[in-house]
Design brief:
single chain, 327 residues, alpha+beta, Tumour Suppressor Smad4, 2 domains, 6-stranded antiparallel β-sheet, 5-stranded mixed β-sheet, 18 strands, 33% strand, elongated
Length: 327
Amino acid sequence: MIDGGAGKITRSGYKTGMKPRQDIPLPDGTMKMMARILIGLLLVGGMMPAAENAPPDYRSQILTWQQHREAGLRSEDGWLTLAGLFWLKPGNNSIGSGDTNDFLLPNDAPPQVGVLKLSGKVVTFSNLAGDRVTVNKKALTGPVALHYDADDNSDIVQVGPISFYVIERGDKLGIRVKDRNSQTLQTFKGTQFFPINAAFRFEAKFIPDPRKIAVPSVIGQTEMQESPGIVEFSYKGQSYRLRPVYEGRTLFFIFKDLTSKKETYPAGRMLNTPLPQDNKVVLDFNKAYNPPCCFTPYATCPLPPKDNSLPIRIEAGELRFESANKL
């Protein structure tokens, strides 16, 4: 996740209730010109009620969030360490760095690490690399059935800097590989963001409307996920809606906007918010972030549901790498 932070936006001293003195004649058209100037200043300033309600330390909060985002990506277990994704076939699947394996691991792994046997929904791992291999940091004494679930709470097989575990995507079971020495991690130059802008922080309305919605993914699957309702926000006098799903104890938004063509990742971005309170949601696009697929071909990212394409430019949050150096 990513925050982009800008300080609190104010009205710059304009008082909308002021009227011109009646004893001073104004040239024709002056009032119309003044109105246009004032409206322009308001739009440039991006004044929104939620921006006015942003906490005094809003900018520092967003900068801290950006730092956490960067640290997470650079961690030894972050998305930048992904080094492989293999789909299991029924029966035996050999894994290791040797060319004869069904699943090829990075060169830091032994030529033969083991065999993964798929029988129905059960995945059993047999170790071929001796005491170099552990499961959940424990030595193996024989074949072991690897635990996994839909939330990727899986047993971790470790061999040196390489680890792998079972993932479940729809009716498919796969092996996700991570490498602490991955080239992607070693060459990563950092994240980039739009300038922090509190005008893209909205106190949005939550409209309960629980139902299951179709969420497509980059691997061609569609998963039905629980959506608790609709989140509605107003920007420059127009109302817009997004439909989130759940991710843990948060609302999870997968969306696109008009920046997705160039400045931000074309497949869309993501955003997490706290669950609604009193039918309100703080929707802060300064915390919009790139999906893992932006960094690696080995992720299985969800794509925006059909109603989550905004016809406006959300100039806040994380940029795609190709455009980050152009702003």
